[in-house]
From TrEMBL:
Disordered: annotated span: 28-49
Coiled coil: none
Residue ranges constituting the Fe/B12 periplasmic-binding domain according to the UniProt record: 58-337
UniProt KW keywords: Signal, Transport
Species name: Polymorphospora lycopeni
Family: Belongs to the bacterial solute-binding protein 8 family.
Signal peptide per UniProt: 1-27
Record's subcellular location: Cell envelope
Record's protein name: Iron-siderophore ABC transporter substrate-binding protein
PANTHER family reported for this sequence: IRON III DICITRATE-BINDING PERIPLASMIC PROTEIN, IRON(III) DICITRATE-BINDING PERIPLASMIC PROTEIN
Stored Pfam families: Peripla_BP_2
Statement: the UniProt record of this protein carries the keyword Transmembrane helix: no
Lineage: Bacteria, Bacillati, Actinomycetota, Actinomycetes, Micromonosporales
Transport keyword on record: yes
Compositionally skewed regions (Polar residues) per UniProt: 28-42
């Protein structure tokens, strides 16, 4: 794997100048296949036709869902993004993404760093900032495919990604494994069949809930689990803040409770794997939530059915690997086996 180098901060003008210089210098060193049968034309999530390598070998994934999907398909990823609310790759992907340089954030990509990695395919989507001007600049570096808009069904987006990278059969195999695991867990829910489930992200001073269009909510729906009325609706494509005066909107038979980033934990000092840090941060944040007036009156709290989870998988955007984490957590909490 390539290591991320240390770069000094430049002004926007200097970066643009350096970028144009490097583009000119590498114009004759295209990473796209040189033969007609070495490329394919695909339709991206905006309806645009994009010519891509038949077998991409150096992929940059600029969003959590595209990184999740690329890793699930065993692609070689040479650059990626930090997770939402995190300083590095999403915690639940940290082991699989070890050594991959971070060249973007939710706010946007670092074009100069991406250029130096000589990708042959760039993947992005609506969960990160990528307007047409940014996409045009990325396309000047390598074929760039916008997979899906924000709030898109994760299985549909993953299927699109699989087609773009020419791994449709492997994509269907991953999804078949997901569906099989869903059926297994659903059959074991017993008295929890059809229970209501709340997904809460808690930050210092502000709780929020995930609404039904996001991947974790889709997984719960596949399991036949229901959302409480205040969460059973579509939203802006991410979490919806809840005032402390309306904590009843968090309540359900079960609550899966997460936060983003160990640094947001009041106690701090977490050790262990990145996913363990995520769960520990959520457990510490739950201690903070309990101090909020009204929280201990929630039914999920009184019934001891609040489950601290890795917020990077549960309260952000993801794909099949995040879905696997969610299924595992649900099985551990809500089934007998």
């Amino acid at each position: 794997m390539e290591r991320r180098g240390t770069r000094r901060t430049r002004t926007a003008g200097a970066v643009t100048g350096a970028l144009l210089t490097l583009l000119a210098a590498t114009a004759c060193q295209s990473t796209e296949p040189s033969t007609p049968d070495g490329s394919r034309t695909v339709t991206d999530g905006k309806g645009a036709q994009v010519t891509v390598p038949a077998e991409p070998a150096r992929v940059i994934a600029l969003s959590e869902p595209t990184l999740d999907g690329a890793l699930a398909l065993g692609l070689t990823v040479v650059g990626t993004t930090s997770g939402r609310g995190q300083g590095a790759v999403s915690a639940y992907l940290a082991d699989k993404a070890a050594g991959i340089p971070v060249v973007a954030s939710v706010a946007g990509p670092n074009l100069e760093q991406i250029l130096t990695l000589t990708p042959d395919l760039i993947l992005t989507d609506g969960t990160v900032s990528a307007d047409d001007s940014v996409l045009d600049k990325l396309a000047g570096i390598a074929p760039t495919v916008y997979i899906s808009p924000t709030g898109a069904d994760w299985q549909t987006a993953f299927t699109t990604l699989g087609d773009v990278v020419n791994r449709a059969a492997e994509t269907e195999q991953v999804l078949a494994g997901y569906r099989g695991r869903v059926d297994e867990i659903k059959a074991g829910l017993g008295p929890n069949t059809g229970a209501t489930v709340s997904i809460v992200r808690w930050g210092l001073g502000q709780p929020s809930v995930l609404l039904r269009e996001l991947p974790p909510s889709k997984v719960l729906a596949d399991l036949g689990l229901r959302r409480p009325p205040a969460q059973d609706r579509d939203g802006p494509g991410h979490s919806q803040p809840v005032s402390r005066e309306n904590l009843d909107q968090l309540d359900a038979d079960w609550m899966f409770f997460g936060t983003l980033g160990g640094a947001t934990s009041p106690e701090g000092g977490n050790t262990g794997s990145a996913a363990d840090v995520g769960r520990a941060a959520s457990a510490a944040m739950l201690d903070n939530a309990v101090q909020t007036p009204g929280f201990t009156a929630l039914r999920a709290y009184r019934d001891q059915r609040i489950v601290p989870v890795d917020g990077s998988a549960w309260t952000s955007a993801g794909g099949p690997l995040a879905a696997t984490v969610i299924l595992t957590d649900v099985a551990g909490a809500m089934t007998a086996g």
